[in-house]
Each structure stands twice: as C-alpha cells, then as structure tokens.
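Below is how a single chain appears once it has passed through the pipeline. First comes the sequence as given, then the structure the pipeline wrote out for it. We keep one example in the README because the format questions we get most often are answered faster by looking than by reading.
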Amino acid sequence: MSLTAGSRPDGTRPAAAVEEPAAALAPRAVPEKPAAGKVPWRVRLRRDRALILMTLPAIGLLLLFNYVPLLGNVVAFQDYDPYSSSNGITAIFHSPWVGIEQFSRMLDDPEFWTAVKNTIVLFLLQLVLFFPIPIALALLINSVIRPRVRAVAQAIMYLPHFFSWVLVVTVFQQIFGGAGIIAQTMEQHGWGGFDLMTNASLFKFLVTAQSVWKDAGWGIIVFLAALAAVSTDLYEAAAMDGAGRWRRMWHVTLPALRPVIALLLVLRVGDALSVGFEQFLLQRDAVGRGASEVLDTYVWNVGIQFGDFSYAAAVGLIKGVIGICLVLGANKFAHLLGEQGVYKK
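Resulting structure:
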C-alpha cells in the first residue's frame, strides 16, 4: 500500500498536518503607511506653532483692514444715509434698499465713462512704456562689471521710490512748469510759452514719466534678484557655442526672467483700473477733470466731496469685480504660455 507524504500507515494524518482554512493561509493585510512627505496636520501644527503665532498679528491686520471693510459694500444696494442713525455702521440697517439702481445710474453717467476711458488709456500707455523700462535698466545694470559702479547706479535709481507724490510733482513743476528751468532757459533765448504741467493733451505722457522716474527702481530690484539666480555655467556654455552678448541675453537672460515677467504682468493687469490717486488728484486743477479724472479720483469726488456714498460704493464694487476678472484672465494666459503666474493650475 502506498503512503502519501506525511501520512501514517493507517492512512490518517497527524494533527499538525491537518489543512488550515484558506483564510488562515491568506497573507495578512499590512496597514498602509502615510505617503512619503505627507505630514499630518496635527504634527505640522505642533511643529510650526511658533511661526503661526508670529503671523497671527499680520493676519489680524489683514482681516481688519482688507476683508472686514468688504462687508460695507452692501451700501451699494442701498440709498445709504450716514445721518439716519447715531453712527455710520448702524445707519446701514436703517437705510432703504434700492437694488441695482446705483448700477443703472452708473451706466447713464457720462462722467463715469470719461473716467473709465482715461483709466484704460493711461493703463495701456503705462503698460507699453513703463513696464519694459525696469527690465531694460536691470539688464543694463547687470552688464556693468564693476560692483561699485553697479551699486551706485542701483541706489540712484531706487532713491525716488521713497519720495512722496507731492515731492515728485514739485520736482517736475520746477523743471517742466511755466516758471521752471526749461521755460526760463527758453525765455532767455527769446522763446516762450512752454508749460508742460498745464498741457492737457500731453498729461498722460507726463504722469507716465513721473511713474517711471519714481517706481522704476523698485522693479529693477525684482529683476536683478531674478538675474542673480541664473547660473554662470549657462553663459559660459553659450559663449563656447559662439553666442555673442546679444544672443546670450536673448537665449539665456530673458528666458530666466520670463517667470518673473509673467507674474508681474499678471499683477499689473489686475491693477489696471488703479492707475493712481494722489498723483492725479494733485494735478487735476492744472489740466482739468476731463484729462485727469480716473476711477480712483472719481470715486473720491463722488463719495467724499458730494457725500453720495452708495453710488461711490457701487463704482468701487464694479472696479473690484473687473480687477478680479482681469487677474484670472491674465493668469490663465500665463498658464497657456507655460508659466505659473500667480497660482498653479
């Protein structure tokens, strides 16, 4: 009689050889480990609690001065009267609702459309003339070999950023005004009638030149920081391949600046309807409201001077909504170009 492996002569198997159930033979489930690099939020909260505590004051200020005032946009749908109650906040609850009456009034207001036209023209002009200048100056300063000369040039260009608009307008008045240096020099040589500060047709170029002189240095710092991150090996490799200075700038420098340019361009487009307030308010009497009225000064004039708070809030609300749409559209365009923009896809 043949015996099977592990069986007794009588045909029975030992107890140890009894077959176990299939469930017992199945491999046991191993608990899943957390994904690599993913830290639970409780661990991160305990680890970064010092940093979180340091940012709480900044978050509080941001909420207090940037987000809480957004609740006041409700007056755009009311006929708001600040004197209907003991204070302006409780007056919101006593003012009658008018729906979209303020927005309909806005569409029929010719002064509003004049402010919109001036704002768009100034934005396009500054986008074409002002935005490329910091890039060109950063490339020029970066090409300077001597560090001391580079530091002095950068400090001189950055200094006007700390000037107030009152000082900037005063400097331009002393140079281009009717009693300025240029006008006096022309009168000494028999020429007269020069006063750029009161020329309404050239006002948009004047304010663009003021913005360039005041804020170009700030943009230079941003682009110089991006240029500092470019590896010198790329320039050496391009030089070994026979690329000259202009070719290296076109194929190495500008591609390195492209992400920063895309980001700043998105932010600039989002701020298209805010071309300035104090700068235009200071010079409005010299050239007239037809040439200098922009949306910011229009809101101030309607809301503060004439006390039409609901209408001014409606204009400001529309301006903010359009600004958000411009940011989203410009950021989408940056994604199509392969750049990150303000946020990733």
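The first helix runs from residue 22 to 25.

See the next section for the split statistics.
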